[in-house]
Each structure stands twice: as C-alpha cells, then as structure tokens.
Design a protein that fits this description.
Low-confidence stretches: none
Oligomer: single chain
Mean pLDDT: 97
Bound molecules: (5S)-5-amino-3-OXO-hexanoic acid, zinc ion
Strand order of the largest sheet: 1-2-5-6-9-10-11-12
Distance between the termini: 23 Å
Number of helices: 11
Order of helices and strands: EHEEEHHEHEEHEHEHEHEHEEEHH
Shape: globular
Number of strands: 14
Length: about 300
C-alpha cells in the first residue's frame, strides 16, 4: 500500500439505515443536513458522504430535488469533497439509487461491491417506539432484505458515474467484495488509485472483531498492492475501536451518524462533528495528522 503521511476522515452525515425516532440528533431536513455536514467539515472531515431524506417523515429518498436543497449550500460553505451515495436505501432499485450521483457528477460516489443479506432487525431490541410507521417496517422487512449489487449493477454505476470523472468509495462488507473489486480491475472497468472502504459489523457482512479487520487489510494488500487507499467504518458500537485499530495500521477512517448513533457506550452522539472531533482526538493520541480536503483529493486522485 502506498506510503502516506496523513489520515483522511470521511463523515457519513445521515445515511438510510437509522431512523428519526432512534435519535433526535439524526439530521433529517435539508437545513439540518447542511448544518451538520458543514460542522463536520469544520471539525476535520475531508470527505462528506451524503444521503437525502424526506423532510417530513425522515424516510430515505434519492429524489434529486431533495439533494438540490442542500448540495449547493454545502459546496458553498465548505471545501470538503462531496461523496454521494449510490446505495441509497437497500430497499430501493439500482436505477433509483444511482440517479443523484449520475446527475450531480460528484468527486466521489459510494459503490457497494456485492449483494448481501442486510440485517437491520437487531436494532428492534434497542429501539421500540417509532413516530412513523415506515420506521418499524424498515427494520422488520430486513429479515428478508437482500441488498442487491450484481456484477452488472456495479458495472452500470461504474460506467455511468465514471464517465463524469467521479471516483468511487468501494464499500466492501466482506472478503468476497474485495475479490469482486479485483475482478473489475482485471477487466479494466475501474482504475486505481482505488479507495477501498471496509465495512465492519453490518449483519450479513463481516463482523467487527480485530481479526476481521486484519483479514480485510491483508487480503486487500495481497489483491491491490500499492494501488489502493484503505479506509474503514465500524457500524454501531464498533465505530471508534475499529477506527483506532485501522489508523494505527496506516488506514483512513469513516465516522458519522449514518454508521453509528453513539459517541460512547449508551451515550448518543449529539452531532456528526462530535464524532469527527472524537476521531481527531484518537488520531492525535497516535500522533497522526489529519488530511485536508485538498490533500485527500491528491491522495485519491479526485477531479477537484
Ligand atoms: C454501511 C453504510 N451504510 C454503507 C454505505 O454508505 C452505503 C452507500 O451509501 O452506498
Ligand atoms: Zn451511505
């Protein structure tokens, strides 16, 4: 893996997994998403990973009209690199999921590197009362939920977004996803430097044990050599522990309320910026510097 001096912090601001009744701090409206994203960038996030939600119900939406209500404001207020989701919600079709990234031509788009069971139902143990009916449904339906990302789905997104100079945050939820990515490299459909985002602790993918992190890293080193930049995200209570482990191994990190609602055991994070600040403290403890947005662009070969 290429030598690197600094760590890129990505902040995933709202996502499509958590629902408003789970935390009053989850940004929902375009105004809340803007404010939270800008504060996260000011706290040190070089990349902002963005989803949209219905302003009334908080339900995930890929409607470009809703993205238009926060994207220009965020771009105006910060130099952070914008990463638009193509995962949307696992309940959506690929066509629906990829629309905003194709339309808005961001510097980065997330790209999920394989199909998988997507178990959200364990959150029903902790979250029992919901303002909106769709929230419980969203969790209960996940007993039968397959997050569909076939080879042709992935190629469709790679080709459509790649044509706009958009690069990818390749989300690998399991070892097989790394091999899928390698296959796209071998077929010349995607070029390096690759940005590999290892996802730990989503039920249906790899767990969050330190051995899982080591296994992902060793396999990525073997498959991609110097041709990739490694980053990690830990779902839920795994977030900061996995960030610490990966940072001490030269990895980049992702935090944000999309991936975890918590700042500590049983303590809800009151903002995305709080998680970014905690990640910065963690890195400072390891004497590791944080990359600026332009340094991240350099490291990832972004179009700027
Ligand atoms: C675990 C994360 N929700 C992965 C994610 O961010 C997917 C996407 O937006 O494409
Ligand atoms: Zn996402």
């Amino acid at each position: 893996m290429a030598s690197r001096k600094k760590v890129i912090i990505t902040c995933a601001v709202t996502g499509a997994i958590h629902t408003p009744s789970m935390s009053e701090y989850l940004p929902v409206t375009p105004e809340e998403i803007t404010e939270s994203a800008v504060a996260a960038a000011e706290a040190g996030a070089a990349i902002l990973h963005l989803h949209a939600r219905d302003p009334e119900t908080g339900r995930p939406t890929q409607d470009p009209k809703v993205f238009e209500r926060f994207l220009p404001n965020i771009k105006q207020a910060t130099n952070a690199a914008i990463n638009l989701t193509t995962g949307g919600s696992p309940h959506m079709s690929v066509e629906e999921r990829m629309r905003p990234a194709v339309l808005f031509k961001p510097e980065i788009a997330s790209l999920n590197m394989g199909s998988m069971n997507f178990g959200l139902f364990p959150m029903l143990e902790r979250h029992t009362s919901f303002k909106h009916a769709w929230e419980r449904e969203h969790l209960e339906k996940s007993f039968d939920l397959v997050f569909k990302n076939t080879f042709s789905d992935i190629e469709k997104i790679m080709t459509a977004c790649g044509a706009n100079g958009t690069r990818f945050e390749c989300e690998c939820y399991d070892i097989s996803h790394l091999y899928n990515l390698r296959n796209f490299v071998d077929r010349g459909i995607i070029e390096g430097p690759l940005f590999v985002q290892s996802v730990f602790g989503i039920l249906g993918g790899i767990g969050g044990h330190p051995e899982d992190v080591l296994h992902m890293r060793r396999t990525a080193d073997r498959l991609f050599g110097d041709g990739y930049r490694w980053s990690v995200l830990g779902a839920g209570s795994n977030q900061m522990r996995i960030a610490a482990q990966a940072a001490s191994m030269g990895g980049n990190i992702r935090v944000g309320l999309e991936d975890s609602l918590w700042i500590g055991p049983g303590a809800l994070a009151q903002s995305n910026a709080d998680q970014v600040s905690k990640a910065r403290e963690l890195l400072a403890g390891l004497s590791i510097d944080v990359a600026t947005p332009d340094e991240a662009r350099e490291m990832l070969g972004l179009k700027g």
